[in-house]
User: Fold this.
Amino acid sequence: MRVKVKFFASLREALKTSEELLDLPIEIQTVGQLRTYLIARGESWALALAEGRAVRAAINHDMVDWSAALLDNAEVAFFPPVTGG
Assistant:
């Protein structure tokens, strides 16, 4: 499965990237599994995406929870919570 992963705000700054195209292993089927997969990349990834951190996710611009199924060629976005004003 191929997905485009985008990072916003403080996540983009911490990871030093705004987006990348990933060909995922077959066992990565949910947004939560993708998060765990990215965390395994190393220290900066583990700190930015840690389970205890407030991180939100969206698939194709729709907010989702961690159990949401990934779709081939989807855009997956990770971002910190935001407030309006």
Summary: The first strand starts at residue 2 and ends at 7.
